Amino acid sequence: MACRGKEGRAFSLKQRMVKGLPYAEYFASGHRACAGCGEALVVRHVVKAAGPNSIAVMSTGCMEVVSTPYPETAWEIPWIHVAFENNAAVASGIDAALKMQGKRKGINLLVFGGDGASFDIGFGALSGAIERGHRFTYIATDNEAYMNTGVQRSGATPFLASTTTSPAGSKIHGKQQPKKPLPLIVASHGIRYVATVTPANVFDLHKKVKKALATEHASFIHAFSVCPVGWRSKSDQTIEIAKLAVQTRVFPLYEIEDGVLKFSQRIEKKNAKPVKEYLQTQGRFKHLTEEEVQKVQAYVDARYDFLLGIEGKKCFDVLY
Ligand SMILES: Cc1ncc(C[n+]2csc(CCOP(=O)(O)OP(=O)(O)O)c2C)c(N)n1
Ligand code: SF4
Ligand SMILES: [Mg+2]
Fold it and tell me: Which atom in ligand 2 lies closest to the alpha carbon of residue 230?
């Protein structure tokens, strides 16, 4: 049975029944993402939280490809596809143009980039745009590799994950470097709001998107985005894997507001699930020896302890 919201498209009664979430969809179903794509879920919920008065800028990557096969589009808000390198630069131009025209108030400017676009290739544009004090909410949809072109490693790929350019074999056992701590690097620019989200924690995601959009200058959201293809995980396990990432402390859920980090879900060591449980859900970690699993566990613990150590303290200057 189909219904229609105040604004927005038709949706099924079942979708309507998600209590506490807006009814209307602005990232339409029928796009061509793979079954169980976590990145598509993140995009859907970010635009659902943002609502109709929004503009989306999106760099090249899976989400662009699956949502706009010409002449179709899944976007029900204005959307622009830009190059890999420059989504934040294009957003700066949109922000400046709207301000010049006196039309900036009430418009949400969303900028989407995959991890390849955000951690690596478009990082310069992102850094420059936030340093100049532009207003937009940047969402880094992190599936931990360049998925659209065949699972190449990026700066976001975790330690020892096997990708096509860090293949597990006799020479190396997956990626040799750890993940780049992008949210902390972005926070160091002096912006007021940085947060991490997963599609398994949708209410938390909606709340954080709203806070980010209310920020006067740039805000940044790091979104954990399971990719069943690149991670070699089961497509019906996406939400379970996202939950496990938080429960094992692999993906800490937090906000950095006005330079102060606060956990949204604080997992004490004694309550944390072993990282092994998370790793076992994905073929990209299948090659790991017991010793390597323990190395990953030690790394995850050390990163989490670092965040616990700075929690509640003013660790980042606030410039805008
Ligand atoms: C400058 C440039 N280099 C390479 C490409 C080819 N390319 C298109 S999408 C893509 C992968 C995108 O990876 P990511 O940003 O992580 O997004 P995902 O596809 O994983 O969602 C690449 C390498 C390109 N379009 N432009
Ligand atoms: S390859 Fe991965 S990120 Fe791309 S659409 Fe499929 S599941 Fe989503
Ligand atoms: Mg990616």
Answer: 2
pLDDT one-digit tens code per residue, 33-82: 999 999 999 999 999 999 999 999 999 999 999 999 999 999 999 999 99
Q: Where are the domains of the chain?
A: 36-310
CATH of 36-310, one of 1.20.120.230, 3.40.50.970, 2.40.10.120, 3.40.50.720: 3.40.50.970
- Residue of 154, 156, 180 whose CA lies nearest to 166: 154
Has this prediction a pTM greater than 0.85? yes
d(CA 266, CA 252): 8
Residue with tokens 């390597």: 292
Q: What is the pLDDT of residues 229-266, one digit of tens each?
A: 999 999 999 999 999 999 999 999 999 999 999 999 99
Report yes or no: 244 and 200 within 8 Å, Cβ to Cβ: no
Q: Which residues contact 250 (CB under 8 A, 6 or more apart)?
A: 158, 244, 275, 278, 300
Ligand 2 site, residue 230, Cβ cutoff 6 A:
yes
Ligand 2 probe mutation, 32, 39, 151, most atoms within 8 A of CB: 39
Note whether 116 and 61 are within 8 A (CB).
yes
Cis amide prior to 71 (ω within 30 degrees): yes
Q: Which residue blocks in the chain are alpha helix, DSSP H?
A: 13-16, 38-50, 62-67, 87-100, 115, 123-131, 182-187, 202-213, 228-231, 238-247, 275-279, 290-310
Q: At what angle do helices 123-131 and 87-100 cross, to 10 degrees?
A: 30
